[in-house]
User: Which sequence fits this backbone?
């Protein structure tokens, strides 16, 4: 079992291990409220685009079209499938309509947000009825998936890493089953990418140029992420995967939560991925 700061002796510190979706939403706060608080603390103006389906684009800094990173946040299920997928399509289409070319756009998301990015890619390759088509003039420049949620299972690291991760097996299964409860079986590949048929992502390079996937060695989702990354590398020529030693779920975030100014091994890799993505000679 990988060791981490969230081992058995420190489990009492990891409140995310025990909260249900409503409790976690209350603890972390509403997305818009958190955004407003952050922008105020940074003395930045609010820049908000209201979209259909209840979606919003919350900009950090001035709007621009030459270098855009779109972060997908889908932690707590507030609507049933395919509402979040519709929101994701509308977000990308809105940016394109505003003048952002796919080559100047990079996507990122963690956990369920990374799951949503994969659902978006699946939809681009295998359109879901009654969801707007994702029309692209060329592939999106890149996508970074941090600790992606890929399947609901209690096998492998979901059991062995229960004592070492910041989020425990029972909570992950509860959140996952809450989301999947209303999803018809035929749409499982969109919500559980690891269950997609062979060659499902064979034409993914038409949708996105580069993909970076990272996971923590001590997180419950590790095995499903490792297996999926290996599979995706067989279907896309530019997929990189990094497994962080002793890392937990969403580990890079903790580089910015604690007062000490020390970066983990993944943060420089992530920053380099985005920087090189905007260097169009790479």
Assistant:
């Amino acid at each position: 079992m990988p060791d981490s700061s969230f081992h058995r002796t420190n489990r009492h510190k990891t409140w995310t291990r025990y909260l249900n979706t409503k409790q976690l939403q209350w603890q972390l706060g509403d997305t818009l409220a958190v955004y407003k608080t952050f922008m105020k603390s940074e003395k930045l103006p609010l820049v908000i685009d209201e979209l259909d389906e209840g979606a919003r684009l919350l900009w950090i800094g001035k709007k621009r079209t030459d270098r855009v990173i779109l972060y997908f946040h889908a932690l707590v299920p507030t609507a049933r499938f395919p509402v979040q997928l519709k929101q994701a399509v509308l977000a990308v289409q809105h940016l394109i309509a505003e003048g952002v070319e796919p080559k100047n756009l990079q996507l990122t998301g963690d956990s369920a947000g990374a799951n949503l990015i994969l659902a978006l890619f699946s939809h681009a390759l295998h359109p879901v009825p009654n969801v707007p088509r994702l029309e692209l003039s060329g592939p999106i420049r890149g996508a970074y998936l941090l600790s992606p949620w890929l399947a609901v299972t209690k096998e492998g690291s979901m059991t062995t890493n229960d004592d070492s991760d910041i989020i425990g097996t029972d909570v992950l299964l509860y959140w996952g089953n809450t989301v999947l409860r209303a999803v018809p079986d035929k749409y499982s590949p969109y919500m559980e990418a690891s269950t997609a048929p062979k060659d499902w992502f064979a034409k993914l390079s038409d949708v996105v140029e580069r993909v970076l996937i990272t996971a923590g060695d001590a997180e419950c989702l590790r095995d499903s992420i490792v297996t999926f990354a290996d599979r995706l590398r067989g279907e896309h020529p530019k997929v990189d995967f990094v497994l962080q030693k002793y890392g937990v779920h969403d580990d890079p975030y903790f580089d910015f939560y604690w007062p000490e100014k020390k970066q983990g091994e993944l943060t420089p890799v992530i920053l380099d991925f985005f920087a090189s993505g905007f260097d169009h000679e790479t």
About this structure: Residues 83-97 form the longest helix (15 residues). The chain has ten helices and seven strands. The mean pLDDT is 88.
